[in-house]
Amino acid sequence: MDERNNLKWFRASTPYINSHRHKTFVMFLGGEVILDRNFVNILGDIALLSSLDIRLVIIHGAEPQIANSLGEREWPHTGLMHITSQELLPIILSGISQARHKLEAGLSKGHANMRLELLVTAGNFVRAKPIGIKNGVDYQHTGTARNINSTAIENQLANKAIVLLSPFGHSPSGETFIFDAHELAKDVASTLRAEKLIYFSADDGIRDSDKNLINELTESQLSLVSDPTQKKLADLTLSACLQGVCRGHIINYKRDGALLEELFTRDGSGTQIIKESYEKLRIATSNDVAGILELISPLELDGLLVKRPRELIETEVNHFRVIERDGMVVACAALYPFEGKGELACLATHVHYRNDNRGELLLARIEHDAKILGLSAIFVLTTQAEHWFSDRGFSEAAIDVLPDSRKCLYNYQRNSKYLEKLIQAPSENTRKQDRATRLDTPEQS
Ligand SMILES: CC(C)(COP(=O)(O)OP(=O)(O)OC[C@H]1O[C@@H](n2cnc3c(N)ncnc32)[C@H](O)[C@@H]1OP(=O)(O)O)[C@@H](O)C(=O)NCCC(=O)NCCS
User: Fold this and answer.
1) Name one GO molecular function term (predicted).
2) Range of the domain at 113
3) Which residue minimizes the CA distance to atom 33 of ligand 1?
4) pLDDT tens digit string along 113-123?
């Protein structure tokens, strides 16, 4: 990447930096990641995330390290999970401790260019319970998480520590049990209701049966995944999403920069897994002010929208509707009632997200809300989007018909066109129903 591309990339990443700050990301790094030559770059990227105030919990695996400790011995597996005997337990723990040691040492080193000292904390945050006997098989010291002390973890995260969890835990009776590390990552992410659960894998992400990378996977597409390892990851991630994690990501540990690309670019590098469509059209709140400003500022500079100072947006934010995607405001519109009519103002869609019906959806929402408020028409003042509105039922009219209280604010220099669309009054039934179900409309209060 040359300097200019770096600059563009950095600027484009700003909204993601803002939306990820103070969020909790749970990451799974298998033991093979620790042995890979890209490991050092991953550690650097983790240090970078921590420096951006992202709260990190890392769960590590240790398969190759355990295999190394076992030597010629076998760790029996039923097809469902390993059986950990009393005799094998110390050998497995020794493999886990090798992996943990490497990870902890690497994180403690931070990143040479950043001069960061990372605080890494590990402890008995997860209580264990035995798997017990399944189908007649006693899994002995193989266990699962009985209880995850989220308060203790949150306290560490609040202290800016990276929480490092190994795949074992102790039961209240003091016995030790070995966990499936992938499952542990899912359980921890779900308990913390993390923003993201990120699995590092040996491939770029999840592939369909034709080996094409799936950029975004939802529950209904799960049947497209045939590879059993990928299916396990997709299942776990989706199950975490169903239990309160906002989204999951599967990315390639061998690829330098895959983590940053996934988190800070629009298209990502791997597969994003979500429960359902992650775009929401809703009434704006004070938390959206920065996002709205970020969206409209370039359009104001281009003269497409009237300049609105931050203070104005802050006080009038509840007039706005926003479409939020991935924590970012990607489109917005505002409704201002004037003497029985409503002005549709500040309609904007982020340039990367245009031509996908978002403008239309916002218009429909504004029309709906205007109807609920009993307004007879909505109008716009536009310099460059006249055809967009006329294609959607607006007609040009003389400035004289502008409501008086709005006319006195009209900027004759801008010479905007006035377009209006009549609104059919809702039936009494619809009105009652809408009021009952949509109490979030601020103009009603
Ligand atoms: C106008 C705007 C909000 C539309 O957003 P969007 O999410 O892309 O809207 P939609 O997907 O519903 O509509 C896209 C269609 O409108 C067309 N369109 C976009 N801008 C247009 C304009 N200024 N005039 C006429 N048509 C326009 C697109 O070509 C596309 O047409 P197609 O469906 O035939 O391909 C967006 O282009 C924008 O933010 N423009 C800059 C700000 C602006 O001018 N706002 C209006 C202020 S009054």
Assistant:
1) L-glutamate N-acetyltransferase activity
2) 3-276
3) 355
4) 666 788 999 99
Total domains in the fold of the chain: 2
Q: List residues bridging with 25 in a β-sheet.
A: 56, 196
**Are 111 and 22 part of one and the same domain?**
yes
Which tokens go with 390? 């006329």
The H or E element spanning position 24 is strand 24-29
As for ligand 1, residues whose beta carbon falls within 6 Å of it are 299, 304-305, 331, 347-349, 354-360, 380, 382, 384-385, 387-388
* 3 state DSSP class of 98: helix
Residues making up the chain, counted from first to last: 445
Nearest ligand 1 atom to the CA of 344 is: 48
**414 and 266 housed in the same domain:** no
Do 224 and 330 fall into the same domain? Answer: no
pLDDT tens string 166-221: 999 999 999 999 999 999 999 999 999 999 999 999 999 999 888 899 988 887 78
Distance of CA 444 to the CA centre of its chain: 32
Ligand 1 center from residue 388 Cα (angstroms) = 6
The alpha carbon of 354 and the centre of ligand 1 are apart by a number of angstroms equal to 7
Give the ligand 1 atom nearest the CA of 384: 23
Cα–Cα distance for residue pair 28/80, rounded to 1 Å = 20
